[in-house]
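Notes from the 1:1 (GR / supervisor)

We went over the backlog. Supervisor wanted to see one worked example end to end before approving the batch request, so GR pasted a single chain during the call. The sequence is below; no edits were made to it. Supervisor asked that the structure be written out right there so they could see what the output format looks like.
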Amino acid sequence: MKYIISILFIAVLIGLGAGFYLKTEDEATGNLIIGLTLMVGFFILMPLFIYHRWRKRNVKEYMLTKENIKKMRDYQKDKKI
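Structure output shown during the call:
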């Protein structure tokens, strides 16, 4: 997964570079390549990256439950003293 994300990231960078280079010669084609590259980056690369980083984590640790709020309040009280 890490290699797929790396290759896709490099492809997005190359696509952006090619789009900006082609934009000087043919604006419509350059804008099309830039737009498609950004769509790939936002709709494919970013969800893959987020899934890769969060797949082994417990989401309940990051939710605001009553227990976590109590822990935060206790921590703040201890910190003030």
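Supervisor's comment: The chain has three helices and no strands.
Batch request approved.
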